[in-house]
Design brief:
- The complex is a heterodimer of chains A (229) and B (163).
- Chain A has 229 residues and is an all-alpha fold.
- Chain A has one domain.
- Chain A has eight helices and two strands, in the order H-E-E-H-H-H-H-H-H-H.
- Chain A has a two-stranded antiparallel ribbon.
- In chain A, helix 2 crosses helix 4, helix 4 packs antiparallel against helix 8 and helix 5 runs antiparallel to helix 7.
- By secondary structure, chain B is mostly helical.
- Chain B has one domain.
- Helices cover 94% and strands 0% of the residues of chain B.
- In chain B, helix 1 runs antiparallel to helix 2.
- The chains are: A mainly alpha (229), B mainly alpha (163).
- Chains A and B meet through strand 2, helix 2, helix 3, helix 4 and helix 5 of A and helix 1 of B.
Amino acid sequence: MKETLYEILMGDKALIHIPYGDGFFDIYKSVVVSWLVIAIVFFLILFMTRDLKVHNISKRQAAVESFVIWIRGVTGGMIGEEGYRYRDYLGTVLIFIAFSNMIGLFGLTPPTMDITITIALSIMSIILVEGAGIRRKGVGKWVKGFAQPMAVIAPMNVLELFIRPLSLCMRLFGNILGATVIMELIKVAMPLPVIVPAALSLYFDIFDGAIQAYVFVFLTSLYIKEALE
Amino acid sequence: MLTTSFVNIACTIINLLILYFIAKKFLFQRIDNIFMQRKEEVDEATKAADKATQEAINTKREYEKKIELADEEKEQILSDIKKQGYDEYERIINDAKKKGEQILIEAKHNAEVENERAKEVYAAQLTDMVIDAASKIAATKHSTQDDLELYDKFISEAGVSNE
């Protein structure tokens, strides 16, 4: 048990060693797994959107159409009408995080359990948030926006620029890490080695994974909405 | 556990951008295209239906107008025919009257001519008879008695021939 936990928590992250730059260019396992996630999503999209028709649609097309409408409804509903242009990105992130979190079902370590991935996600989020604000208000107004509603809290607002992505990144990372660790413990501790872990895996891998993906996207869209106001 | 590296963060950002590009290009745009085509079709169908309705209303109006005109025309034709009929009637009656008058005049004239002719015949017979009587009287020796007989005879002959 100790070894498993050690492997999860402290093991070497690097999977592909590049013999140059003293490990600086090593590719982490989580990145490789996220390539796999991207490949799976890509092939799924290709399969689902194969030979789309305007009339007499197949069940597959009906499913993918209602999925697109649903995911746009989710992200668009959170972000509001002004930010409709960003909802496809948020939908993509939702799909990516959900798939990443659930890949633990297939025995792989979820990429979102690595802080590298969540840092990248939150950097993208904060760039999107501030980019949306700048795009909307222009640079001058965006800078002035830090001193609102009054100049005293300007440092707080500047701090938020870092707090927000940090909280996004840490929340996702901690949740998935916790879920994975708990699942490992349960697998060791449970007397019935298949049934109970399977049932709990339903919660920790699927439900928690989906919830965390939703929370990440929800908070990002909340920030974007705020930035657009 | 908390180790990270710049290269891997950059890799993940690139991954995300690639995934976004894939999703945008192959999922959202494709579906959007389908939705757009569907919307266009619906718009076109609505437009066509509106146009057809407008055309139908126009045609209906046209026909109503035509029917109104036909009614008027019908009245016109009927009144024309009636008038013509009256004219014809007048003409026929007038003709008949004229003909009747002519026939009457002709008949009167014929009767007069006939009368004239009968008078002439009668006069001629009378003349013959007078001559006959005169010759008879002249041919016979006669007394008062004879004369009386002769007169009687003449009168009775004349009466016979005049009947």
